[in-house]
Amino acid sequence: GAGVSQSPRYKVAKRGQDVALRCDPISGHVSLFWYQQALGQGPEFLTYFQNEAQLDKSGLPSDRFFAERPEGSVSTLKIQRTQQEDSAVYLCASSPGLAGVNEQFFGPGTRLTVL
Amino acid sequence: GQNIDQPTEMTATEGAIVQINCTYQTSGFNGLFWYQQHAGEAPTFLSYNVLDGLEEKGRFSSFLSRSKGYSYLLLKELQMKDSASYLCAVRDPSDDYKLSFGAGTTVTVRA
Question: How many CB pairs under 8 A join A and B?
Answer without folding.
Answer: 54
